[in-house]
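User: histidine kinase. Structure?
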Amino acid sequence: MNYKGYRFSLSLRVLGLLISLTVLAFGIVLPNTYAIITGIFLSIFAVYHLYNFAIKRFVAMDDFFESVKYRDFSRWFSEEHGPTDMTELHKGFNLVNRTIKSIDNEREAQFLYLQKILEMVNIGIIAYNVESGEVLWANDSILKTLDFPSFKNISFVEKRHPQLYDELFETYHSTTASVPLEMKQETLNVLISDTVFEMETNSFKLIVLQNIEETLSQNESEAWKKLLSVMTHEIMNSIAPISSLAETLENEIQNNLNDPEANLLNIEDLNSGIKSIKRRSEGLLKFAKTYRSLNKVTQLNLANVRIEELFNNIQTLMQPSIENNNIKIEFLLENPDLQINIDSYLIEQVLINLLLNSIEACHQVENAKIQLAAHKKTNGNVIIRVSDNGKGIPEEIKDSVFVPFFSTKKTGSGIGLSLSKQIMLLHKGRIQIKSREGEGTIISLMF
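Assistant: Predicted structure:
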């Protein structure tokens, strides 16, 4: 606003009012009728112009605040007509309106952008007013999962499906929970998490619903495909020679029965063939027992174990094997008093298996070295690492090393890493592999 022009105009009108009041005062004191009449008219004229001058600006400000109150930022104030201070005031109002409109447009664009993103994700999201039940927002994914049309209030769900209503809207899930939902004539496995937030004086609840039925089915299907592929290969390798040898023996016996004199039966060959079938059958039985061992580990005998003691046990067990292979081994422990709550028998089994793999990988490698290390992260988690500078794992088979019965060794059963992974999952931990062919491998056990 042009404050100088405003002050000058205001001062001029106040001065005119003072002059008119002075003339009126002189007329009353003298007394002089003409002076009184002139003073009265001049005072009325000065008061009118002063009032009109002030009220115009208050009216303009009142109009502006009224538009702000009702969020009407499309109002335009004239910038070309009227006194200079008024046009400057109008310019300020218009600038505020343009700024707020620009902010609103940006917020609306961001809202639409966020809305489109949430519509595209394959996770159901709904937010509603806790007191009134009015739905603030719900994406298509949650409507599709619940098999409901668009609804404006959660009472719609309560009327159509009370049990579902209680699970979704009445039950509070402090952490992400896997919940079976009865949907029509089928049970749907979903992950549910929710939170309550405040907006002004209202409380809203945000519910996130993820349908894991399809994901579980797909993962289960892929796991079965990999498992059956490996099992089929192993079983066929055992059955094919058994079948071939049995057929050969059957032909020899049948020929002997048909013509004993022309087809003499060699008892030694027959005995040798039967023994071969027996050995192959035992191998197949051993394979089946090996498969069953994947499901044996279901419970843990947890105890606080000093990692230094764990490493000493491993060193006693593995030192001869490592020395016989001319491999250097290092045991690194930052804190000798570091403890971890584990089933020591099972974790020893995991570490021995990993060290045997490292010994195999370091075979015929110059300056071969294996390192077993442990440290505690800042978040309190403990990591045990087995690393070597061996042959490494080829990129094309990295994804298969945890598949049961998968092995690159001629004498390997293919369950070592699979069993190690299951043991780590039982400890609520995980196993991670980093490897480069020709450089070495690092396997981390993260508890």
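Confidence is low (pLDDT under 50) at residues 410-414. DSSP finds eleven helices and twelve strands in the chain.
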